[in-house]
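Final report, closing paragraph on structural work. Over the funding period we assembled a curated collection of sequence-structure pairs, and we close with a single example.
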Amino acid sequence: MPAAGRRRSAQARRRPAGLSRELPIWIEPGLPASFAPRAEAFAVSLAEALPLGWHSVHVDAPEQASVRLWRASGSTGALTLAERILVPVASHWNLVRGITSEALGGLLNGTIADWQALGSPEPLPVELVSLRNGGRELSGAAHEASDPQSCARLLVTRPGSLALVERAELEPTMRVLWLDGHDPLDLSADDLAGAGLVERLVVEGSDALQGIIQEVAAQLPRQALEPTFTIAVAGDIILGRTVHRIMERSGDWAAPFRAVAPLLAGADLTVADLECALTSSFAPPDDPFTMRFMTFPQAVEGLLLAGIDAVSLANNHSMDFGAQGMRDTLATLEAHRIAHCGIGETLEAARRPALLDVAGTTIALLGYDGISAAWYGAGEDWPGTAPLAVEYVIEDVSAAAGLADIVIPFFHWGIEYTLVPTEEQRRIARAAIDAGATLVLGSHPHWLQGFEFYRGKPMFYSLGNFAFDQEWSLETKQGVILRLHFSGARLLTFSLEPVMIEDYHRPRPAHDQERVVMLQRIRSSSLELLASAGG
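Its predicted structure, as stored:
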């Protein structure tokens, strides 16, 4: 027992026998689930710290209490025991990227009744969702959800929905709305308090009780907080052909990435699909239309500028220059500490995951070639890519789940220039999730495709082109950066940041109208998947 507590106990023992003292405590009814246990723990600890002969009693009205525990949303001067941060969430099918604090107030009080007033390209009535646990209860709500999971399911089917959810309780099927030009997941509690998105569990009492209140509060275990981090993912990067010629002619080996480097390098981990050899053992093909892609090792400067930490090489161009091209590529990547997966000297090596650590969380990245494994695939004693075979995926993902907290397979698959993945792709993606994958990534079609959820986990079928020279159609110039937000091993949510490829080599952030067009295409593909899944 602390010294102050021992002194109080000793003093209490000298009091006349039979003298009993009561300390009335009031705890606000209906506290959020994230507050209620901590309030009760404080009350129990306070009772245990009272001098002999004293005991606490719970009362029904705050004015009857000497100690009060309640929920506050503003500054009170009272001692804070816990806090919860709320964020506004909408459906992934709602194309409004963000709102202002003022607009949030209008949405919640009903003065803004349609998302079109905030930039939606089509009419979309606002439907408030009141969240009983893990969020905020809203008056006048169109829907009520008992927990974040039921809220998440509602957002999939009700595109106009809006809820306020605790940041720690987010689900991947929720899309966090930007607030005042910032991602709320990047903001502190102080930043969000002004928008009324921070609630605190506070305790207050008379001046005579401040010492014991402070002492008991200091002994409570700290709120457990998992480390949070982001993973950024880009689609197909081909630094050969026209892209190579532009870099060589300009003498700028990082040219493809200069406009998007801040978006990629700002993540804690950045991943992409690299579809070319980095080699000086060969001369670049003279044919301007060649389908064999290579560039010189100096092009790694662009990967470094963009903060790319890992690449999948399981694709139909990483072996265009044979085993020597592969070895040169791996040597360059390893010399610059860029991890790789999906290729190797043997089948075993090609199937081996790249293991990365972020904030104490281990991530396993696997790569599979579903396009060229018949001629570029590795064997027991020859080099190549990891073939996309469902039995390999199940075995490898299951094994990786025993080594890592997060398992991400990156598939190179599908049919070029199509909007919707095949049923075979969907079957493989589900098998990966069943085996323990956290999510599924895909590339190769050269078009953006949709995503869907299976067992609450997202599967992204094609992120489109990224650094590429296919300027002959709008669709082949479109791509996205996928941003994944994690808390420890748990995927909280994700966002898509559209990019437009220009000048035959350089992606840049999409303008507003370009962004809307790309997200509409992704939504169209995704809703077709949802409909065919019976959702």
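DSSP finds 15 helices and 29 strands in the chain. The radius of gyration is 28 Å. We thank the funder for supporting this effort.
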